[in-house]
Amino acid sequence: MMQRPPAEPGMDESEIDTPAAIIDLDLMEANMDRMAAFCRKAKVRLRPHAKTHKSPVIAHWQIARGAIGQCVQKPAEAEALAWGGVRDILVSNEVVTPRKLARLAALAKMAEISLCADNEGAVAAIERVAEAAGMRMRVLVEIDVMGVRCGVLPGAQAVALARRIAASRHLVFGGLQSYQGVAQHLREEEQRRDAVAQAARNTAETVDALRAVGLSCDIVGGAGTGSFAHEAASGVYNELQAGSYVFMDADYARNRPGPDFAQSLFVLSTVMSAPRDGTAVLDCGHKGVAVDSGLPLVFGRPEIEYIGASDEHGTLALRSEAAGSLTVGETVRLVPGHCDPTVDRYDWYVGMRGRRVECVFPVAGRGMMQ
Amino acid sequence: MMQRPPAEPGMDESEIDTPAAIIDLDLMEANMDRMAAFCRKAKVRLRPHAKTHKSPVIAHWQIARGAIGQCVQKPAEAEALAWGGVRDILVSNEVVTPRKLARLAALAKMAEISLCADNEGAVAAIERVAEAAGMRMRVLVEIDVMGVRCGVLPGAQAVALARRIAASRHLVFGGLQSYQGVAQHLREEEQRRDAVAQAARNTAETVDALRAVGLSCDIVGGAGTGSFAHEAASGVYNELQAGSYVFMDADYARNRPGPDFAQSLFVLSTVMSAPRDGTAVLDCGHKGVAVDSGLPLVFGRPEIEYIGASDEHGTLALRSEAAGSLTVGETVRLVPGHCDPTVDRYDWYVGMRGRRVECVFPVAGRGMMQ
């Protein structure tokens, strides 16, 4: 069962059923324009990460502004986009089981599909599926430039794996996946710059070592909303994979300076109880707003603090100097600590122009973890 | 779009697509039998909380063992159960908006529906909807016995609100909702006992004060998996609302002593990378297993620790003395830190007998936050 649509076009914000994921379309469009302009000027391709928005509708808005395609993390997310007409999709992640690989091979009949590998066994599994499907699949080597997750070591290990891919009749070597995820959330500009510089050096050395054995990298991809200007400036990366810039979140806003994008995604929530002076309880707890990167903020109401999330309740504290108070039935906009997993709780986006609902469309990739 | 079913009946566990929510049916049935036997012996009614399982299928299994109905937190959860044939549903939470109340009134044509209120404005809103629907709606007064969330104060405030409900031609006073949620997760038995004793005293005084004005409480409801024996022993509560006992989780298992139920829900996850000795990366991060109550455990593999969750990646550390290692493509069962929000990430349950898939059925209340 899907959630019922929480609104219809033409409604006022006060009529939206809550909790609901609402987008300020003006601000989201400005974010997309700003990133597109940056990439044009920096002469680097933009392949935004759809793990943030999970929507072919938003993907097409990005592509209309010059993005060359989309990134996803999972085959089921790739399906949600390809079935929505997106033509070029990179699974920026390892896929290792025959069942998932067969789905990607089937999807490659309707879109350009690339994926990543970081070990010989995975390459062999992809090769078997590609051979069975009678096609060549495009595989990038993921290199580990942050030392904490997937990826082979930059340099000789990466070259060996790339040669294995390039030597296969059923595979195409597509380049390098090089994502420095830790750098995104380092708070100081110099920390982020230095972390990306190290990743870029490792990546450049690997690109050079590949060139020395006759392998060129169509894609050298990475970067995120917290650091993309550094990857672009490095001259090594030719595709930026930032995703969060489209919506922003409270955690990225804690970077100094924060990324130059506006918060455009909110969770609309209703006060369902105001049991004591200085306290109110919302109808949105951590089932409705992800708390893995901190509690949400209350948009435009600095006198109110969201101090606790249980499953279906959010507890607010009103600072004593507050001009007003919160009344039962009133709504507030929450700024999620982290948009990607927050969006994953919703089946529908409500697109707003100011306080008016302009459109309601599905989060087609919601829950697509497989 | 729903997730595709990750398995079919008859499959072996190794054939299940991951991540997937799997239930050990033998252990879940034993948990349900044990709780049913406890309630029969304690002469207290059982109204399990469906916020844990979100499934009319599991609700009916509980009801077949003697449960009188179900609790939910949201009108959309009530719909998922009533549309699946559950006949008696208590929304153990405040519902304040006309749109949601109208849905509950409609639902009351096909099932017995009760809900809670903690303020006069909410009672008036319920009354208006009941009058418009030409029916009487059953309303409980929620009292705040833990001082942190919804609820009027026990005693005079609660009595005033109950009298307001009982005086309405469109409402029926249904009793008291008295949930001591904090007590559930206090680690020591004496702490939980003392916290519940305080809540029970406040509740008993309110029941007495209501009786003094001629109002009797059909339902005096509360309790959870961490404390239900104390509520049952108090003689005040006549309905227990425990939910997690059916699945258990890693957090409840940290209570001393832990509740006498077995872990029956797991997230099945696949190793998608093993980049370095002593490390492996799973295809399940915090989008697939809730981390609000701590990271998951790896079931039956004490030599492996789940040390980090990003959106779609779970990082494992193998202790050096580990007999074996983890290989790409291998699956593990994760014990969620908290089952309720973990289940909320999945559209399907996979019911297992040992390692064989017996049934696949929907998490009908998944995402039903409205």
Care to describe what's here?
Two copies of one chain form a homodimer. By secondary structure, chain A is α/β, with parallel strands linked by helices. Chain A folds into two domains: 13-21 and 260-362, Lyase, Ornithine Decarboxylase, Chain A, domain 1 (Beta Barrel), CATH 2.40.37; 44-248, Alanine racemase (TIM Barrel). In chain A, 29% of the residues lie in helices and 23% in strands. Chain A has nine helices and 17 strands. In chain A, strands 1, 10, 11, 12, 13, 14, 15, 16 and 17 form a nine-stranded mixed sheet that branches. In chain A, strand 8, helix 8 and strand 9 form a beta-alpha-beta unit. In chain A, helix 4 (98-107) crosses helix 5 (120-133). Chain A is globular, with a radius of gyration of 22 Å. The two termini of chain A are 18 Å apart. The mean pLDDT of chain A is 96. At the A-B interface, helix 5 and strand 10 of A face helix 5 and strand 10 of B.
Strands, helices and their partners?
Two copies of one chain form a homodimer.
Chain A lengths: L19 E5 H18 L2 E2 L9 H9 L5 E3 L2 H8 L5 E7 L3 H10 L4 E6 L2 H14 L3 E6 L13 H11 L4 E7 L11 H24 L6 E4 L5 H7 L4 E2 L24 E9 L5 E4 L14 E2 L5 E6 L4 E5 L12 E5 L3 H5 L4 E6 L2 E7 L8
Parallel strand pairs in A: 1-16, 2-9, 3-4, 4-5, 5-6, 6-7, 7-8, 8-9
Antiparallel strand pairs in A: 1-10, 10-11, 10-15, 11-14, 12-15, 13-14, 16-17
Helix pairs in contact in A: 3-4, 4-5
